[in-house]
């Protein structure tokens, strides 16, 4: 008789340009589970609100008290309770830990700002010094907004991921395949999973 696999719940986070979306997709494909991306839920809401710029939408929601954050995080809790899912979110690992939700493994990816800027520009297919300056400014602003918001809403230290994540990995000098393979190694070595 085949043993039933325990339900998986992975949480992956990281600031913009850290590689969290790429790695989340790779992990979800590897483990054959759906990926729920908090950013997509926000973008869908921005589309419904007919707001052109996602950054503008985030700024507006931050100024408005962040009820949307609470709504989306509540939805993420529902997905987490069902299990067999990967949740990509900048704050959910902290929320899961604070609320006693058993996570198979939580992974935080980070990189230095210049690497994140380079990745953002490559992803957008843009070039030029002005684009680099604009990307750097946007990433720094977004980091500041997120740090303030998570501290205010949840008393979470966004700048100290080691408090909430099982695996914290600097991807500055790694490509996506190296990052993915290193994470799989850490998942096995740390006995988070049994394959």
Keywords for this entry:
195 residues, alpha/beta, Rossmann fold, 5-stranded parallel β-sheet, 8 helices, 55% helix, 11% strand
Secondary-structure class: alpha/beta
Biggest sheet features? 5 strands, parallel
Number of helices: 8
Q: Which of globular, elongated, flat, extended, rod-shaped describes the shape?
A: globular
Give me the Rg, rounded: 17 Å
Question: CATH topology, which one?
Answer: Rossmann fold
Relative strand content: 5-15%
What top-tier CATH class fits best? Alpha Beta
- Indicate the percent of residues in helices: 55-70%
Provide the CATH architecture.
Answer: 3-Layer(aba) Sandwich
Describe the structure.
Helix content is 55%, strand content 11%. The chain is α/β, with parallel strands linked by helices. The protein has a single domain, classed as Rossmann fold. The chain has a 5-stranded parallel sheet, sandwiched between helices. The chain is globular, with a radius of gyration of 17 Å.
Write the layout of secondary structure elements.
Elements: E1 9-13, H1 20-31, E2 35-37, H2 38-48, H3 54-63, H4 67-82, E3 85-88, H5 92-98, E4 105-110, H6 113-124, H7 129-154, E5 167-170, H8 176-189
Helix pairs in contact: 6-7
In short:
The protein is an alpha/beta fold and about 200 residues long. The chain contains 8 helices and 5 strands, in the order βαβαααβαβααβα.
């Amino acid at each position: 008789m085949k043993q039933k696999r325990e339900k998986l719940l992975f949480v992956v986070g990281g600031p913009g340009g850290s590689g969290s979306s790429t790695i989340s997709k790779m992990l979800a494909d590897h483990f054959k589970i759906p990926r729920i991306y908090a950013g997509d839920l926000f973008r869908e809401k921005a589309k419904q609100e007919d707001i052109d710029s996602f950054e503008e939408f985030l700024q507006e929601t931050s100024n408005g008290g962040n009820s949307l954050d609470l709504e989306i995080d509540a939805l993420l809790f529902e997905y987490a309770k069902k299990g067999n899912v990967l949740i990509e979110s900048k704050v959910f690992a902290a929320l899961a830990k604070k609320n006693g939700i058993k996570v198979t493994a939580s992974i935080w990816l980070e990189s230095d700002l210049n690497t994140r800027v380079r990745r953002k520009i490559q992803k957008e297919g843009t070039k030029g010094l002005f684009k680099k300056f604009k990307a750097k400014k946007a990433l720094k602003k977004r980091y500041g907004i997120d740090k303030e918001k998570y501290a205010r809403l949840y008393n979470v230290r966004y700048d100290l991921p080691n408090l909430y994540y099982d695996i914290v990995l600097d991807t500055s000098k790694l490509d996506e395949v190296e990052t993915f393979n290193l994470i799989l190694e850490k998942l096995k070595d740390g006995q988070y999973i049994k394959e």
